[in-house]
Amino acid sequence: MATTTLTPQAATYRRSWILEWLTTVDHKKIGIMYIANSFFFFFLAGILALVMRSELAVPGLQFLDDRTYNEAFTMHGTIMIFLFVVPVLAGFANYVVPLQLGAPDMAFPRINALSFWLLPVGGLMIMSGYLFGGAAAEGWTGYTPLSSAYSPGPGTDLWLIGLILVGTASILGSVNFIATIFKMRAPGMTLFRMPIFVWTVLVTMTLILLATPVLTAGLIALFIDRNYGGSFFEPSAGGNPILWQHIFWFFGHPEVYIVILPAMGVVSEVLPVFSRKPLFGYRAFVFATVGIGLLSFSVWAHHMFTTGVVFLPFFSFMTALIAVPTGVKMFNWIATLFRGSISLTTPMLFALGFISMFLIGGISGVMLAEPPIDFHLQDTYFVVAHLHYVFFGGSVMGVFAALYYWFPKMFGRRLNETLGKTHFWLMLIGFNLAFFPMHMLGIQGMPRRIADYSPDAGWTLLNIISTVGAFTIAISILPLMLNVVATFINGERVGDDPWEGNTLEWATSSPPPPYNFDTLPPIRSERPVFDLRHKHDREQLAPALTAETEASS
Amino acid sequence: MSAQSPAVTGPNTIVEVERRQVGMPTPLLGMLLFIASEVMFFGGLFAAYFNSRAAHQGVWGPPEGAAPLEILPIALPITIILISSSFTMQFAVWAIRRGDQRALKRWIAVTLALGVLFLLGQLYDYSQLGFGIGDGIFGTTFYTLTGFHGAHVFGGAVGLTILLARSVQGQFSARNHIAVEAISMYWHFVDVVWIALFTTLYFLR
Amino acid sequence: MRRLAARPRLRTLIRTAGPLLVMLLLGGCLFPPTPETTQAKDVFTLYVVVFIMGAVVFVGVEGAIVYSIIRYRRRDDRLPDQLHGHTLVEILWTAIPTVIVMFLFVWSTLTLTTIDAKSDPAVTVEVTGFQWQWTFHYLDGDNDPKNDYSVTGTPANPPVMGLPIGEPIRLILKSSDVIHSFFVPHFLVKRDVIPFPNGINPNELEFTISDPGTYGGQCAEFCGDLHSKMTFTIQAMAPADYQKWLADVKAGKTPPPSGTPPPGTAVINLTAQNVAFDTSNLQVPAGKPFVIHFDNKDSIAHNVGIYQGGKEVFTGQIVTGPTTVDYQVPALSAGSYTFHCDVHPSQMTGTLVAK
């Protein structure tokens, strides 16, 4: 298993593997559990998506009634965001960040375990609405007064409590990550020598720390309105339904950056490795990430342009502004590819898929940032297209890049490249078939969150294409599942550094020993393993870098 | 134990160093970050309060039939009690920093007693108010804000109880009392939130 | 070596260009419907500007990605030049996008000012959204609701809002329950319909229709079970035609949904509770109007719809309980009908016999 010599096997202290995993505080095992739990919910939410797309393919309610459809899109959104994409990226962060920092574990290992275990509990609670008279059905955004006075029954209450648990898990995790990143870096690793993935995780965790509690306050307020006669959002008692939207989106907008930044971090790790060049503009990238984090608190009301109660020019301006650091990152990535030496491995394909698809999502976002255009496109399928291009074409592509990239480190075996490439191409094609037509549907006026539409609307063909795409995505998961199972059984074994990586996780065995490192290489740049590998090749490097390395060692 | 540093070091030489703690101890950083998240939580509740108050038509205050909020006989005394408890908490921290375990126990016990007194006073105030959480927007925001503050005081009281038990067992020393420092930060935070609440509810009105 | 390099290049080109090509082919439908108000035409212009800039950015950036992947494929083990950054280039590619987005912001703010300009409306309609239909109440400014025209839609019969072209129209948007949104794709606009508390003015939407025609619309803010059925139509016509239309509909205006029935009218009691009617057999007199006294004891919405041979003969207004409402049902000829709740058609159903 390990290729280093000093691996103390706890030979005299055996316990069952179930007990081991249930009680572990090891960030690597916790990270793997996060990822496994998240993919379980990914499949659930994906099935809900297939159910919706099957119903919507042609006009008429074929096999669902309105309410069941409404529960489906509510649960799909809630599960995908809170129980898949945020936790799976937190899981990769959990596994990778201590390794990339050269640390033996997270700052607070027991809180790390607590953060994980709250997730399946919260997730099951959210879903349990189905068993108690109907799941929540007000959309993942749960606007009042629909969700307060007009949705009786336990489904919404279970949704609220489950989300409070999941949010608490996030907040505890964010405390852990920020403390770890500031206090547990290996000697020599200044902040500007941290891997870029760690930077994106740091900003993400700061957003979680500061934004999620506001959601918690809102969820509690809604619970009080629903169950204790509260009037936060009740117009007849002096409450304002719009207050919910402000509270929700003040969290909701940083939330979408929480979803995208770690995936951008993954892409920023993968692109340099498979271009054999450093990330272009590391410092600018760090400032762009921090800038996005700060700005993300100032744009929330662009989700509320059509409410008529928002100061439009301010939010339009700030939203336009936040496009700039995002664009800078795009150019940094392309400049990394430019004049590189590119290998199209599966993780690289997903990273390239990310930047191609996220570009489209970014452009549609800039369109939505203009209030007059938003008046037409808000609450239509154009927004559904936009959010899926950034969430799926962006974050989920980043998640799969992370999976294929770090799987060998986690399990000591590399996933099969042919199956991986099949997964990628089927997913990319299916994704574009499913979601590109939605731009057109929205532009033509098809609203979102409708269980059915008129046969005279002219929307049928595009809906059929979209459904075909959705099923293609589902099919693309098959080579992935086959790949994972086959690799666990008999996959190609790898050593410490199968990809010629740059960062410290590749300086230890695959998988690492429980304490992570026997020795650490000297850390003089953001690519310590690259430096170690090329210390004899200094004539290849830029002279300026050579001088800097000599001077500081 | 620091080994003899070798005369020549290259990139792969292993050198043992004695790590000195640089900057804030990790558990305190953790508590500070947690407090930051709590500030945002109360921020959300305060935002709801101010938003509702700004949009309100008519006089902002308890509903018809209930007396207006007064700082006496309860609100001001419990404020003084809570502020005093922050002082006694700090006395406890200073005590253990000089290694005085007896004073530590004494001041933690006093702080805990004052905190419990605050909670009892708050509950008594609730019973005298004449309106509830379901009585209009003022009732809802008032009880939500003060209620969650009270819950946080209760959480702090639980922490203080654990500190008291540990200090009675002699677990703290001048060099090793990080939990006391961390709980004291939390306790001061809870006090600051109350000062903001008290000012908002009873003076800004 | 060269042949090996050539084959992957073509394959990669097809694989990357393929999905993009498909997207381009479908690209014809990336423009909004024909704008039919003066405001919509301004929005359409802004849209075209933003779209073109987006398309240029897309082609340029996506092209750079595809070019780099193909041109810089790994051919050997030589390490490429390890360029860490280039300050001038980075400044340029920060400054230029900033200028571009600021330009878009300014243009969009100017468009916003134009389309939001208020004027003296020729027609004012109070639009009330409720779960799950609309009421259009034409205000004539004399504060006398008895001579106003008002129409309330049903799921089977969405309401029609007749309007004159070429004159400013003002809609006052009110909600009886949850947040809805008034959306007309051909007007390139929507505005939320919000149940504000007392003291906050309802949202208003103003526009001037430019061409006659029939323009569909529907609710665009998810509002519960039958959100997808909450449709309406706007019928735009020349001002003279509009005056005639208004007079016509006023003459045949529908009676208010509830009121005291004339003496001698049969009153049938029907209760809805726990998503079920209290009876699945109703008997009513044939050939005479009658009243269904409907008691919705649930806190969710129900109604009563009467059907024969798949066709709707009567649809009662959907009401959210607990509440009661009297449905004035027109005379039914003798025979067998079915009735059901339009919100819960499979769970709440029964037979109605008229004789």
The percent range for strand residues of chain B is: under 5%
- The radius of gyration of chain B is 23 Å
Provide the CATH topology of chain A: Cytochrome C Oxidase, Chain A
Question: So, the CATH homologous superfamily of chain A?
Answer: Cytochrome c oxidase-like, subunit I domain
Q: What is the CATH class designation of chain A? A: Mainly Alpha
At the fold tier of CATH, the topology name of chain B is Four Helix Bundle (Hemerythrin (Met), subunit A)
- Compute the number of strand runs of chain A: 2
Largest β-sheet summary of chain B: none
H/E element sequence of chain B: HHHHH
CATH architecture of chain B: Up-down Bundle
- The total number of structural domains of chain A is 1
User: Which structural class fits the helix and strand makeup of chain A?
Assistant: mainly alpha
Distance between the termini of chain A: 33 Å
Shape of chain A: globular
Q: Compute the separation of the termini of chain B in Å.
A: 62 Å
Q: Please identify, by name, the CATH architecture of chain A.
A: Up-down Bundle
Write out the strand line-up for the largest beta sheet of chain A, numbering strands in chain order.
1-2
Please indicate the count of domains of chain B. 1
Most extensive interface, chain pair and sizes: A-C, 102 and 97 residues
Report the major sheet of chain A.
2 strands, antiparallel
Helix fraction bin of chain B: over 70%
